[in-house]
Amino acid sequence: MFPGLIIKLLFGLFPVPPSEAIIMDEYGQHLEGLIGPYNEGFPLALACEGEGGDPSPAVCWLRNAELLDDSYYITPQGFPRNELLLSSLKRTDLMSSLTCQVSNSNLSAPVTSTVVIDMNLKPTEVHITTACRDHPHNKHDNQRNLSCKGDNPQLPDSILEDTWVLDIHFPPELEVKINKPVPVFEGTDVQLSCISQAHPPIVQLQWLKDGQ
Predict the structure, then answer these.
(1) Which terminus of the chain is more exposed, N or C, with fewer CB under 10 A?
(2) Does residue 98 contact residue 62 with C-beta atoms inside 8 Å?
(3) What InterPro entries does this protein's entry cite (predicted)?
């Protein structure tokens, strides 16, 4: 047997490991490291292709080192490809790692590439606190709305709002009105009205003449 034939046969017994795992977005842009930010609640589509290797390698996705998807197919160009769709990103996906693993043998370590998801998150709670209430108010603010709003300008429909109806207490203010023009002539009947403004409302009014 010829030496060259022996070498060829020996190489045929051992698989050639893949050379690269390539992660890309839906537009074919290559990705690595920190990616995004992507919006909470929006889908994220990624693809990974393996390059090199004999026999053709398998391609799988891991999320935080746990198997996420091991389905793949061979493209017309002969590359193994696994397409991953996260239909709705959740808050728990923030800073999670997605690893594409390409391998064709237990005899060599798999080739990997990893991305980390950065996200825009919606506010979850908005509350009026003591600090927000530390603002002087007057009687004209009584029963008006005090609102505190929070939102992420990068996200549509992310506004949260907390609203209080102000309950402002203030002492009585009195105004006396007369139904005739002043001065009033002796013997003329007049009607006096006492108008009060207070919160809480006063419960009793008294008329006094010369202090009695």
Answers:
(1) C
(2) yes
(3) Ig-like_dom (IPR007110), Ig-like_dom_sf (IPR036179), Ig-like_fold (IPR013783)
